[in-house]
Design a protein that fits this description.
Layout: E1 2-9, H1 18-33, E2 38-43, E3 47-54, H2 57-64, H3 67-79, E4 87-95
Length: 100
């Protein structure tokens, strides 16, 4: 199983709006419709983290390399508007070695 973590730094103490959350949910829904087994979106005062769990790297790659992924990414970006510009911190794709 592969875990993908996408971390974005955000402007201090600005909470996500409903429009921004829905933009992210579009990505999570795309993932779930294309083989992803579970997704999570979380935030604190400094970061937004999206996590997705995939059965294998090939399933993840097929989504990340798709036109639909680019379209959803553009929607996520557009959902930020003038309030906050997302600052991509890191992306991590790794094999899960232990889980409970």
């Amino acid at each position: 199983m592969i875990m993908r973590v996408w971390s974005v730094l955000k402007e201090e103490n600005i909470e996500l709006t409903e429009k921004q959350i829905n933009g992210w949910k579009n990505f999570l829904d795309l993932a779930m419709a294309n083989g992803c087994e579970r997704t999570t979106l979380a935030e604190d005062s400094e970061r937004i983290i999206a996590v997705s769990y995939w059965p294998n790297q090939e399933s993840l790659d097929s989504v990340v390399n798709s036109d639909a992924y680019e379209e959803v990414g553009a929607k996520v970006q557009a959902s930020w508007g003038e309030q906050m510009i997302p600052n991509h911190e890191m992306t991590f794709n790794g094999s899960i070695v232990a889980d409970s």
